[in-house]
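Kindly go through the following sequence and its backbone structure tokens. Advise at your convenience whether the structure tokens fit the sequence:

___
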Amino acid sequence: MAPKQLPPLSRRERQIMDVIYQRGRATAADVQDSLPDAPGYSAIRALLRILEEKGHLHHEMDGQKYVFLPATPREQAKRGAMRHLLETFFDGSVEQAVAAMLDSSSKKLKPEELERLSRMIDQARDKGEK
């Protein structure tokens, strides 16, 4: 069964989720301290509540403080974000997305990176033939 697709995030919500994924858990004050051009504390609290309502976060109590944790493992969230990116900008085409990444790469890929990519393509090809 495919995981439930969560509602998309605004730019600021993505920034908050980045902070929480990086830290593993965070209070509203932690989030505020980590954000560039952070809004006020009450705005952070409101955004955290919205992220909980959307299903991206949950909280635990630590004394009087709410501590927020991701509701979805980072790997699952990455896959969901990639699906959304593919659908939004590349008409669902993995080929177009990879071509864009290779074309816009500001540095050359290392031989070991190219080898890993080649193995992944071979594995995908093998899965597709079965």
Observations:
- The beta strands are 57-62, 65-70.
